[in-house]
Amino acid sequence: MNKRQSRIFAIVATGLAAVAFVGLTIHSHMRFGELTNAQEITPEITHGKDVWHKYNCINCHTLFGEGAYYAPDLTKIAQHRGEAYLKAYMRDPSNFYDEQRHRRLMPTQNLSEVEIDNLIKFLDWVSKVDNQGWPPRPILVAGGSMNVAAQGTDAAVQDVRPVTAASDPRAIGEHLFRTAVPACTACHSLQPGVQLAGPSMAGMAETAARTLASPDYTGNATDVEGYIRESIVNPSAHVVPGDMFSADGVSFMPNTYPESLSEEQVDQLAAFLASMK
Known about the structure:
Blueprint: H1 3-36, H2 43-54, E1 62-63, E2 66-67, H3 77-80, H4 83-91, H5 99-102, H6 113-127, H7 146-151, H8 153-157, H9 169-179, H10 204-213, H11 224-233, E3 246-247, E4 250-251, H12 257-260, H13 263-274
Antiparallel strand pairs: 1-2, 3-4
Helix pairs in contact: 2-6, 4-6, 9-13, 10-11, 11-13
């Protein structure tokens, strides 16, 4: 290829690349409304976006992989945690952390109830945007990590959180999830698709609802929290035939929690797990 041919090739290749780029850009813009469910945007969602910017949430968190990386990406947080959990967390994040263990914590922003409600609506809308698989890795919500589970009960008991009788029951329930004897983290993960000795608790609310609606359900619960409570105090009340977590109709889950936990603690643990979407 001589110089003239090389020049022509470069010009044509550049032109084709430019046309492709412009075409893809136009195509993307034409689909923005469909991909983002723009028709679902309400004044409350718009206000929630304004709250996100007002308090500079992006200085620590990310959406769609964009932002700072000091704290978790929140693109799908509304699909991982229920509204009640998110409200309790935003009201007072300190209930969900041990300052000595975790050091860098989310500050208490003193959001109004309206700001909290609309910020959650905004994050729910974000979670439903068709982001075409971006970021290219699953975003996991912190909690119940395999590292803690591998270390066993002693390590989990050290994860003491500043919970009090006045704290939200979901915060106390998360604390119990780590510190109950035996520790729930020894067998259960809170991460989607991460199976340890027991099933992942991610999506527990939906799992419980589906089980209750199934004609094969053999327990006595009538609602989600009741089912979770039953699974804690009487794990063999309902077992899934053929699964790897039971044998001969008997669950592998310990049946000693009625002795080691009070009824109030079981309720708090159930409240936390019922917030897992």
